[in-house]
Design a protein that fits this description.
Layout (H helix, E strand, L loop, with lengths): L1 E5 L5 H4 E5 L9 E10 L2 H8 L15 E9 L11 E5 L10 E5 L3 E3 L6 H5 L3 H13 L7 E4 L5 H12 L3 E6 L2 H10 L3 E4 L5 H8 L5 E6 L4 H6 L3 E9 L12 H7 L2 E4 L4 H5 L1 H16 L7 E5 L4 H9 L6 E5 L7
Parallel strand pairs: 8-9, 8-11, 9-10, 11-12, 12-13, 14-15
Antiparallel strand pairs: 1-2, 3-4, 3-6, 3-15, 4-5, 5-7
Helix pairs in contact: 2-12, 4-5, 4-11
Length: about 325
Amino acid sequence: MKAWQVAELGEPEKVMQLVDVPEPTPRPRQLVVRVLASPANFPDALMCRGLYQVKPDLPFTPGVELCGEVVALGPETQGFAVGDRVVGAGVLPLGGFGELALMDVATTFPAPESLDDAQAASLYIGYQTGWFGLHRRAALRAGETLLVHAAAGGVGSAAIQLGKAAGARVIGVVGGPDKAEVARRLGADVVIDRHRQDFVEVVKAETGGRGADVVYDPVGGETYQRSTKCIAFEGRILVVGFAGGDIQSAALNHALVKNYSIVGLHWGLYNRYDPPAVQQCHRALTELADQGLVSPLVSERLALPDVAAGVQRLADGVTVGRVVYDAARGVHA
């Protein structure tokens, strides 16, 4: 079978190689799936660089989430059958950027029938992160103002749709006019181009000086620091990630005097500490998809030979929505 492998660390386009590898054999509670689609995620790029908290042994195949068709079952896989269309996590070292992948039953779910393969593959990490962040961690309420950074990216675009579905007023921050148009199409009520506008001043103006009730921040660094200047009384800043490259330090005296919360979100821990909540989340997301309230924005559908270049564009911050390996586009160079 063909699969992308990383045998040394560096920039994705330089270190990812499309090679022939043996077909996988499932262990207990594992499935082998024919990959139908697998989106590029920032962790894929970070793992190529050796900068992610998960550091798989070399060589490995990236692709941390996917949609696939079950072709083989290991022991203890009750509830699954050959032919099932499923979504969830790829099991490293054999992730989704290949013809076949491994999946664990604990992180595998039925694919929503209302979504095509590329959209279904994109419903897992970004949307579950958004659902747990906005509902479990920040307790977003209808009528509140939600500020979403990197709003045209994979994680941010999910947060816009989930915020609107929850009845919030959504302000999206993007970088550039093309990304601004994407955020508008996703449903953001107000879109701020950070290259042209100061998001702090716009948020204050749009909220009558109150500020945002919830800030969804996958960027970190200066973006987080400036968000503290436009957070509302009893607001919640969700620390989702550090795509900007800088990990900020929180000024706790500032949180005290302005009476806001700094809320961390490590979505992956729910799979360890509260698996029933992950099942509940997937059911809720499936219902929202079936109702047309969420629909992952797939901006690029790639044949397998084009995956490394797509991961590099994601790493360089020039993509919008989701960049997805779509097996229907072809798997052979």
